[in-house]
Design a protein that fits this description.
single chain, about 240 residues, alpha/beta, Rossmann fold, 7-stranded parallel beta sheet, 3-stranded antiparallel beta sheet, 7 helices, about 15% strand
């Protein structure tokens, strides 16, 4: 595990965005895994700025979304599909056929999950997977209790996660289920980059630093990956001591 302790939130965001844009520039046909959430919004905006400033095109890349709520129409304003269209596809000039969305519509969700796994394999695998972390240590929607062997599957969201995401659903009930890449699916990626910012993530980061492969805090599974970079701002790192 490589740790980048940034001097500010802005510096942490810039560090992650630079990794993504450098990857696209050096490998124009990269397969990138996209995470959602408030943590990633400024990262994607910074990526758009860098792509424009450095005159780099992403038209040969392919993108996989990490997860998606079930029970929402694809054009729902709080769906992750809408999020990716707004924060990545439009500003990066990415076409619809460059992005694979978790197939949450249809009767047979298990079959849908298996088809997503096949598509990931056929793509050659994700070269760089972006990740955030929940306050309870979840990655994607792999909640506490998830095992290391899990693949893309239907998951039940914890009340803690639903409350954390409730602001996105002011006009309706927060979904109770989602389709998410599993831990093993995520670990198949060639490179992992996790960004954590803010005091609310400090406990999860402290737990990550002190535990390995703990199902009660799924982010700890990432430490076994040979190319895992953890990027922190001062608040997310406030409960750990790196001077050892």
């Amino acid at each position: 595990m490589r740790i980048i302790l940034s001097a500010s939130k802005e510096e942490a965001i810039s560090a992650v965005a630079t990794m993504v844009v450098d990857k696209i520039e050096s490998h124009p046909k990269s397969v990138l895994g996209l995470a959602t959430g408030r943590t990633m919004e400024p990262v994607y905006q910074k990526c758009a700025d860098l792509l424009g400033k450095r005159k780099i095109k992403s038209d040969l890349c392919f993108f996989f979304m990490l997860d998606e709520y079930t029970g929402l129409p694809s054009n729902h304003p709080s769906s992750f599909k809408t999020y990716i269209r707004e924060h990545v596809m439009t500003p990066w000039k990415v076409r619809e056929d460059q992005v694979a969305f978790p197939p949450v519509h249809g009767i047979d969700i298990r079959s849908n999950a298996e088809s997503y796994e096949r598509l990931l394999k056929e793509s050659g695998g994700v070269d760089l997977q972006l990740l955030g972390v929940g306050t309870n240590g979840h990655i994607g929607f792999n909640e506490p209790g998830s095992t290391k062997e899990t693949r893309t599957r239907l998951v039940q969201l914890t009340e803690e996660t639903r409350i954390a995401n409730s602001a996105q659903f002011s006009e309706g009930e927060t979904p109770k289920e989602a389709l998410s890449m599993g831990i093993s699916t995520i670990l198949d990626s060639k490179s992992l980059v996790l960004l954590a910012t803010g005091k609310s993530k400090a406990d999860a980061i402290k737990y990550l630093m002190n535990h390995h492969d703990d199902p009660e805090c799924p982010v700890t599974y990432l430490k076994s990956h040979p190319d895992f970079t953890l990027v922190l701002d001062p608040e997310a790192a406030s409960k750990i001591n790196l001077n050892i």
